[in-house]
Amino acid sequence: MAFELFDQKGANMSAKTIATINKYNVLILNAATTRIYKIQEYNFANIYYDKETMKIGFKFLHDMEESSFKLTAAKNHYTIYISLTSFLKYHNLKLKETRKYLMIKDDESGLYVFDISKPLKTPLRKKKTPKIGQPV
Question: pTM (2 decimals)?
Answer without folding.
Answer: 0.78
